[in-house]
UniProtKB/TrEMBL annotation:
InterPro entries (alphabetical): ABC-4/HrtB_transporter, ABC3_permease_C, MacB_PCD
Entry keyword Cell membrane: yes
Residue intervals of the MacB-like periplasmic core domain: 18-244
One cellular component (GO) term of this entry: plasma membrane
Keywords of this entry: Cell membrane, Membrane, Transmembrane, Transmembrane helix
Role: Part of the ABC transporter complex hrt involved in hemin import. Responsible for the translocation of the substrate across the membrane.
Similarity section: Belongs to the ABC-4 integral membrane protein family. HrtB subfamily.
Protein name: Putative hemin transport system permease protein HrtB
Length: 405
């Protein structure tokens, strides 16, 4: 009997148990693949998240919070710093480029960020916008590619922002109702006009709305003396120059100067610690899949002992019987592996927008990486290892003793 035909017949003979085994492998592979894509997305986002701006100047507080809010548009700012700090930073010969940033408002949960248009040239080079042009006057905005898609906004559209990172629907304190109502009126009376849509940048800037630095001052009617800024993005001339700038500014005690790469590394290390727990869960899933394969093949070995004994009496070798058992394990594992890779990529494709919106993790669901080879090799090795015990049992089978019984 042809070995492949014999293998397929055995797998199809026990459809339900074979299907359960394949599904357990599929779920495990898909979960591992999604975890791998998410981890790669975090690392790539951390690497490209801040561009050439090695320093950020902001109010005293958490360094991580300052960097996440400034570059990743996550969380609240640490506070404001005096606007004249920008002149001091730009006047320092250690600085190549510096841009003030203002935040605090949003439109449908997408942050409105005030920054000089030169920021885009410094960070991304001379890229063409998908539509329209960069802003030039107060009230004009450009929108990140992802935000424009989700908000269904086109060039020429207008909208009004709201205060805070997420608009509050219910007030916790009745005493604040009057102030919140006045603030709401201020935002409703200020209209933004969309002048352009940015190309896809594959950074957190894809989900932000950008306008002039003075937008917050215009919305709230602040005087020249009150015009604070949220932070300053600094591209130092050299790393040594960056250290000199940090020392000189922090001596004044009004601001903190943070090395962006260090704060991002702290976040990545925190994510790595969290991923260790996920790796434990992944290991448990792998063990369950291996046990599923083992139980399926042990049950199969018990059912097929007579068939195997008869094949031996008809002249088939021990190697043929062992190959049949190992081959069945490989078929079940390989089928689950292929389906798991497909399911993992499909899951990544359908979850990519949700992951980017809620966590800022940008995954590439159609990208093939070296992890695929590792996952495939590990899955097949697990399947073979689980097949060894029932294969050894069949190898030791005495066909004459079985026939007499």
């Amino acid at each position: 009997m042809n070995l492949l035909h014999y293998l397929l017949r055995n797998v199809l003979h026990r459809k339900f148990l074979s299907l359960l085994t394949i599904l357990s492998v599929t779920a495990t592979v898909a979960f591992i693949l999604l975890l791998s894509m998410s981890k790669a997305g975090v690392e790539q986002g951390a690497e490209k998240g801040y561009g050439p701006f090695d320093l950020v100047v902001g109010a005293a507080g958490s360094e991580t919070q300052l960097v996440l809010n400034t570059f990743y548009h996550v969380g609240a700012p640490t506070g404001n710093i005096p606007g004249e700090t920008l002149d001091e930073v730009r006047g320092n010969p250690a600085v190549d480029q510096a841009y003030a940033l203002t935040t605090g408002d949003h439109y449908n949960e997408y942050p409105i960020v005030g920054i000089d248009p030169g920021y885009f040239l410094t960070r991304y080079g001379d890229q063409r916008l998908s539509e329209g042009n960069l802003y030039a006057k107060t009230g004009e905005v450009v929108i990140g590619a992802y935000a424009a898609k989700m908000l269904n906004i086109r060039v020429g559209d207008t909208f009004s922002g709201a205060h805070g990172l997420v608009e509050e629907v219910h007030l916790e304190e009745e005493g604040r109702e009057h102030d919140e109502h006045d603030e709401h009126d201020e935002h409703e009376s200020f209209t933004y006009t969309v002048k352009g849509i940015l190309p896809k940048l594959n950074t957190p800037d894809d989900r932000a709305i950008f306008t002039t630095v003075d937008y917050a001052w215009a919305v709230h009617g602040e005087s020249a003396e009150e015009r604070d800024i949220t932070s300053i993005l600094v591209k130092p001339a050299t790393l040594q120059a960056g250290q000199e700038l940090r020392t000189s500014l922090e001596e004044e005690g009004r601001v903190q100067v943070v090395y962006t790469s260090k704060a991002v590394a702290d976040v990545v290390n925190l994510v790595d610690k969290g991923s260790e727990l996920l790796e434990i869960v992944t290991l448990l899933c792998v063990l369950l899949a291996a046990v599923s394969i083992l139980l399926s093949l042990v049950a199969a070995a018990g059912e097929r002992s007579k068939d195997a004994g008869l094949l031996r009496l008809l002249g088939k070798s021990r190697a043929y019987i062992v190959a049949a058992m190992l081959g069945e394990g490989v078929i079940l594992t390989g089928t689950g592996l292929i389906l798991g890779i497909v399911a993992g990529h499909l899951g990544g494709y359908f979850l990519q927008d949700a992951l980017f919106h809620y966590a800022g993790i940008q995954i590439q669901p159609l990208r093939i990486s070296g992890d695929h080879a590792v996952i495939a090799a590990g899955t097949l090795a697990t399947g073979l290892a689980a097949s060894l015990l029932p294969a050894l049992r069949m190898y030791r089978l005495d066909p004459l003793a079985l026939f007499k019984a």
